[in-house]
Amino acid sequence: MTSRVLRVGILGQGRSGRNIHAEYLKDDPRFAIVAVADLLADRRERAEREYGCATYANVDDLLARKDLDLVVNALPSHFHAPVTLRGLEAGHNVLCEKPLARYAAEVDALIAASERQGRLLAIFQQSRFAPYFVKIREVIASGVLGRIVAIKIRFNGYARRWDWQTLQEYAAGSLLNTGPHPVDQALQLMNYDGMPSVWCKMDRVNSYGDAEDCVKLIMTAPDRPLVDLEISSCDAYPRYTYQLQGSRGGLAGTTSHLDWRYFDPAMAPAQVLIREPLPGPSYCSEELPWQQASWDVPQEQEDLFHSMSGRIYSNLYDVLTKGGALVVTPAEVRQQIAVIEECHRQNPLPRLAE
């Protein structure tokens, strides 16, 4: 039986549109890039040469086509919500790059349009499929760490930036650019349907624009682990991506290597609470029967972007051809955008004059 080939139009041929989406799609026989839109003539000419597709200078000319199975919105961030809405209203299934929107109300409008038109709204939150994150979830689900009480996430480094991703008017800054990845992961680990309590501190330090490049975010919810999340361009010593604290052990690691240690309570020394002073110069001390484990990213998944893209596009293919379910749902992304919106509300930064 021959698999159906999905015809794809890509909006934008910058880093995301070309180096992530087109780079993956051009080699997947389940998809065919048949149309590209970009303002820049050299990018259109390159797309014609590399993919043999039709090209458009105006996104609405591409959206006017009726033969597309999927439109990928890889335009700059401030065009994500409005152009995705136009795509849905034109009758297309749309996969939008992150961030989906700046405000939760915009996500509500997109969900409503998707339901009204009977079209798919999908969001490219590919880090949900990151090999290290999949493994972390497996370790948590195994129960060896016990109840998870605290999660530290660090998407840090040291860098200066001076492009459009530093300007608030373009829906930029660390929280809307990098943030959708760790915030999405954190909310998945919290597994809380409502709006968590949010405390956030943001600063503009090395950015040449007016958007933040240093973020500290704390999230809590009833009976859920505390999340301590950083996205900083001011960290000269980034060591860990993840650290988990649990009642029976913990985990720490990066995107390519994880370590975790834990003990079996049945094998631990029996202890009882003592209210009286301990005899002699004493202190609570015991030898726990620690067990150690580790994980290294498989060689075939070392190309992180390609690996994640493959899994999210496989999910999309199943949804569009077999009636499968989205792994990353618009409702989940709405929760993420609501958290980010609250962070910005708490931290109104001065804006540069246009």
Structure commentary:
This protein is α/β, with parallel strands linked by helices and 354 residues long. Helix content is 32%, strand content 21%. Helix 5 links the parallel strand 5 and strand 6. Helix 1 packs across helix 9, helix 4 runs parallel beside helix 5 and helix 8 crosses helix 10.
Feature tags:
globular; 10 helices; 354 residues; eight-stranded mixed sheet; six-stranded parallel sheet
Number of DSSP-assigned strands: 14
Q: Approximately what portion of the residues adopt beta-strand conformation?
A: 15-25%
Largest sheet: 8 strands, mixed
Structural class: alpha/beta
The number of helical segments is: 10
How are the strands of the largest sheet arranged? 8-9-10-7-11-12-13-14
Output the helix-strand order.
EHEHEHEHEHEHEHHEEEEEEEHH
Mean pLDDT, rounded to whole units? 95
Percent helix, as a range, is 25-40%
CA(first)-CA(last) distance: 57 Å
Radius of gyration: 23 Å
Regions with little confidence, pLDDT below 50 for 5+ residues? none
Helix/strand layout:
Blueprint: E1 6-11, H1 15-25, E2 31-37, H2 41-51, E3 54-56, H3 59-63, E4 70-73, H4 80-89, E5 94-96, H5 104-117, E6 121-123, H6 131-142, E7 148-154, H7 174-177, H8 180-190, E8 197-203, E9 214-220, E10 226-232, E11 242-246, E12 249-253, E13 257-262, E14 291-296, H9 304-322, H10 330-346
Parallel strand pairs: 1-2, 1-4, 2-3, 4-5, 5-6, 7-10
Antiparallel strand pairs: 7-11, 8-9, 9-10, 11-12, 12-13, 13-14
Helix pairs in contact: 1-9, 4-5, 5-10, 8-10
